[in-house]
Amino acid sequence: KMDDDDDDIPQLSSHTLAALQEFYLEQQQRKGMKTSQGFDQYSIGSIEEDWQLSQFWYSDETALCLAKEAVLAAGKGGRIACVSAPSVYQKLKEQDGEDFSVCILEYDRRFSVYGEEFIFYDYNHPLDLPENLLPHSFDIVIADPPYLSEECLQKTAETIKYLTKGKILLCTGAVMEEQAAKHLGVKMCKFIPKHSRNLANEFRCYVNYASGLD
């Protein structure tokens, strides 16, 4: 009797089914966006975060706030370097018509889709940089070291100090306050950055200049 066998098939609740359908629809829309010609490759989420690389994207509001701060700090015609901070880079690229230039130093080679502005970067080799990336050639460096360790911060700090003319905007955990001051001379701001997914560690911004983040 075929009908009796149907009772053994587990049934999803209508709520679970609706959530599942919504998830699949979202995935399809995302794929559709990525293949359509009008897709903006610079929008946050166009490259999804890879937790194995310790990637956690900022919320849209935080990325925009940090991008605007970087533009103001760099000044007219300024140069901005984003070190391991791709969601800020993506927001900067959305600012069409703004008078500044930007490059992204990133370990994740998926960001090579951004062409010449992408520079492969491994914090374990802080000064292994292209020859055309001249010392002290950026008006501001915004950096988000991938790990909350003094070793990672210290090595990233070498890169930051090589690149910047002076201004530094660092994003890292609140627990790194002492080390941030020690290695980069930066102080914690009042502004609290948020991520698109909540992190267990309290996150903060640090600067070494009079910023709009206080």
Can you walk through the features of this model?
The protein is α/β, with parallel strands linked by helices and 214 residues long. The chain has a single domain (54-207), classed as 3-Layer(aba) Sandwich (Rossmann fold), CATH 3.40.50.150. The protein contains six helices and seven strands; from the N terminus they run αααβαβββαβαββ. The chain has helices at 2-5, 14-35, 60-74, 86-94, 150-163, 177-184, and strands spanning 78-83, 100-106, 118-120, 138-143, 164-173, 187-188, 203-207. A seven-stranded mixed sheet has the order 3-2-1-4-5-7-6, sandwiched between helices. Helix 5 (150-163) links the parallel strand 4 and strand 5. The longest helix is centred in the N-terminal third of the chain and has 22 residues, at 14-35. Residues 31-40, 42-47 and 49-55 have low confidence and may be disordered. Keywords: Cytoplasm, Methyltransferase, Transferase. Pfam families: N6-adenineMlase. This is EFMT1 methyltransferase. GO terms for molecular function: nucleic acid binding; protein-lysine N-methyltransferase activity. It catalyses: L-lysyl-[protein] + 3 S-adenosyl-L-methionine = N(6),N(6),N(6)-trimethyl-L-lysyl-[protein] + 3 S-adenosyl-L-homocysteine + 3 H(+).
Indicate the radius of gyration in whole angstroms.
Answer: 21 Å
Distance between the amino and carboxyl termini: 73 Å
Low-confidence stretches: 31-40, 42-47, 49-55
Topology as H/E string? HHHEHEEEHEHEE
Q: What is the assembly state of the chains in this entry?
A: single chain
Tally of contiguous helical segments: 6
Shape: globular
Fraction of residues in β-strands: 15-25%
User: CATH homologous superfamily name?
Assistant: Vaccinia Virus protein VP39
Q: What is the third-level CATH name, the topology? A: Rossmann fold
Highest-level CATH class: Alpha Beta
For the record, the CATH architecture stands as: 3-Layer(aba) Sandwich
Helix-and-strand structural type: alpha/beta
Average of per-residue pLDDT values: 82
Helix content: 25-40%
Instruction: Let me know the number of strands.
Output: 7
Main sheet properties: 7 strands, mixed
How many structural domains in the coordinates? 1
Order of strands across the widest beta sheet? 3-2-1-4-5-7-6
Protein name: EFMT1 methyltransferase
Subcellular location: Cytoplasm
Keywords: Cytoplasm, Methyltransferase, Transferase
Catalytic activity: L-lysyl-[protein] + 3 S-adenosyl-L-methionine = N(6),N(6),N(6)-trimethyl-L-lysyl-[protein] + 3 S-adenosyl-L-homocysteine + 3 H(+)
